[in-house]
Specification:
3 helices, alpha+beta, 129 residues
């Protein structure tokens, strides 16, 4: 498969509950959409690189900050990859974020994310295959 050059950008998306900081990457043309959910550490350079790599294979990839109600990314101020001595601080920070997560809010956000994707001219409508 040819690796395609991608465009990428950070932007803010208005949801029912506020402003969600987001990242997208995509090649030229129309492509299937991927809603790329973050892990507990939140959006960060490593995930941005993963999004760009996936986009280079022919996808419009959208990474929202699922913890936007708490704060904008970055969620943790830790060097990656984590060292053993960083784990206690990381665990404390992550558990605080995870405890604040609300499934009803996440489902409402998913609707906003899918609506966003449906409106993008670079997203090919219909099934991916």
């Amino acid at each position: 498969m040819n690796i395609k050059t991608t465009k990428s950008r950070h932007f803010d998306l208005r949801t029912a509950d506020g402003i969600c900081d987001c990242f997208v990457a995509y090649p030229e043309g129309q492509h299937p959409a991927v809603l790329f959910y973050m892990d507990g550490f939140g959006p960060r350079p490593w995930l941005f690189q993963m999004v760009k790599k996936l986009a280079s294979h022919g996808y419009f990839v959208f990474l929202p900050n699922s913890f936007y109600r708490i704060k904008r990314a970055p969620m943790v101020n830790l060097p990656f990859p984590l060292k053993v001595e960083d784990l206690p601080k990381a665990r404390e920070t992550l558990m605080s974020l995870v405890r604040s997560f609300n499934h009803q809010d996440a489902m409402r956000d998913a609707g906003a994310y899918l609506d966003f994707l449906a409106k993008q001219p670079e997203v090919r409508p219909g099934p991916a295959w």
